[in-house]
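User: Let's play a game. I give you a shape written as tokens, and you guess the letters that built it. Ready? Here's round one.
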């Protein structure tokens, strides 16, 4: 079977199975060959790769990954797509479809059972309503993932990739860049999907670092510090860090001074290094 990424091939599969698109499941299928190639390049796909895909749809990207990678496990929530995928992926015995909700499934268990324990790459055109929880699940749950190459809404890619003191810089930027080097892989305007969504998209590569770049004594305190700092963006750090709930104003002042950060600055101006230093000082008060 040829590629499924033309509009005609996608329509044929959809019509043959009388498939009804679900808006609430974020079903916008990719119909652009070039973007598929860019995703494969961005993921630096090779024959030793073990891939997890979230939301294979009718299998457009899944097929192309199956032709190259060692194994692909594709997790799809919509049971009406399962018979379609059985057909479109029939010739690829290294591809397995799992009918589950990505947010509920035990990803580590799947990797142990079906992908030899990993390491894995997450490569997907994600359902947009749950992009952030999916990416954070992979980053925070100690899943052995080396690269995340995903199609996301342009605004989310901008936030993941943002630098300090820009309007897009926030807790998501810090969380992603704490673990990963980021790379914009490709642009995908809305006309490259069927049905057309009302947003444009970007393929972003998040390459998880082998070694930690930031010295953080207590990750829980680090992420709480970041959250509190961005919680009230208009406030100075001296005020917004009150949101942590366990520091007096004097202690906040002391921590900021020790980290060499002016108390009048706002959270959105802090680099990740500065957040790390600040959270290490705050951590000294937490025990
Ligand atoms: N990969 C296909 C493509 O590029 O054409 C489809 C991508 S579409 C944007 C998102 C896919 O994610 C749909 O197939 C949808 O059914 C699936 N999906 C939505 N929510 C999901 C969830 N919680 N767990 C797993 N898959 C989900």
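Assistant: Ready! My guess for every position:
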């Amino acid at each position: 079977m040829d590629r499924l990424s033309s509009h005609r091939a996608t329509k044929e599969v959809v019509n043959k199975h009388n498939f009804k698109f679900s808006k609430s499941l974020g079903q916008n299928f990719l119909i652009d060959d070039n973007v598929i190639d860019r995703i494969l390049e961005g993921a630096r796909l090779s024959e030793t790769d073990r891939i997890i895909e979230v939301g294979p749809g009718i299998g457009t990207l899944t097929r192309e990954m199956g032709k190259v990678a060692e194994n692909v496990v594709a997790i799809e929530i919509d049971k009406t797509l399962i018979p379609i995928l059985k057909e479109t992926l029939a010739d690829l015995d290294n591809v397995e479809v799992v009918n589950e909700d990505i947010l509920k499934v035990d990803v580590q268990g799947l990797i142990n059972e079906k992908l030899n324990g990993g390491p894995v790459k997450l490569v997907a055109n994600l359902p947009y309503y749950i992009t952030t929880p999916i990416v954070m699940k992979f980053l925070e749950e100690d899943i052995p993932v080396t690269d995340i190459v995903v199609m996301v809404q342009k605004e989310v890619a901008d936030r993941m990739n943002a630098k300090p003191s820009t309007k897009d810089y926030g807790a998501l930027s810090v969380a992603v860049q704490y673990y990963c080097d980021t790379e914009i892989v490709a642009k995908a305007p809305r006309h490259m999907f069927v049905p057309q969504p009302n947003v444009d998209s970007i393929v972003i590569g998040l390459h998880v670092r082998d070694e930690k770049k930031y010295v953080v004594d207590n990750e829980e305190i680090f992420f709480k510090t970041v959250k509190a700092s961005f919680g009230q963006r208009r406030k100075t750090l001296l005020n917004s860090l009150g949101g942590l709930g366990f520091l007096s104003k004097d202690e906040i002042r002391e921590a900021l001074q020790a980290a060499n950060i002016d108390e009048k600055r706002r959270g959105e101006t802090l680099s990740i290094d500065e957040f790390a230093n600040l959270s290490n000082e705050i951590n000294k008060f937490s025990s």
